[in-house]
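Journal club prep, shared notes

We agreed each person brings one worked example of a sequence with its structure written out as tokens. Mine is Impact N-terminal domain-containing protein. I'm keeping it raw so we can talk through how to read the token line rather than staring at a rendered picture. Sequence first:
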Amino acid sequence: MRYPIPAGVHREKDEIERSRFITTVAPAATIDEAQAFIQSIRDEFPDATHNCWAYVVGPPGSTARIGLSDDGEPHGTAGRPMLTALLHGGVGDVAAVVTRYYGGIKLGTGGLVRAYGGCLQRALETLPRGERVEWVAVQALVSYADVTPVRQLVAAHRGEILHEEYGADVTYTVRLPAPDVEPFVAALRDATRGAAIVERP
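Then the structure, token by token:
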């Protein structure tokens, strides 16, 4: 499975009716990572009026592992519109915190919903994106004569050699993007005239 994720931590700033809003978005592959990120923003802005947050762990739009908090704002005015923005933002494994410094003018519930949801939508529009790829490890036993073809095939299939062991033959532990495993194995067997022994550790 492959899907877009945040490429790294991304931040945007807005001012609405004299309140300052700081939106920070980050990758979060697990709930623990999301919660650690949220805590890091709380630690960075301990004097903020509110640090409201939401996260979606999993593919874009997935509701299996989600979380949200209004952090003291009226119920449903911050975390919910933020979560809605994340679920429709086209990225997965994502956590966001919108930090608010109150500026003295009340926004009302509708204004808060628009502010929190809108700030996060704008941040998602400028968010640099990466890709989550499911990796699979395989072991390949080949003769010394086939070392060069193996290295070339690993590179050609976007893989990475994790470990090599030299004995009577050479054993490689390789990780590959899941969709590339079968093509890699077929190409390796072809290049070694069927002599390569491939298994998943």
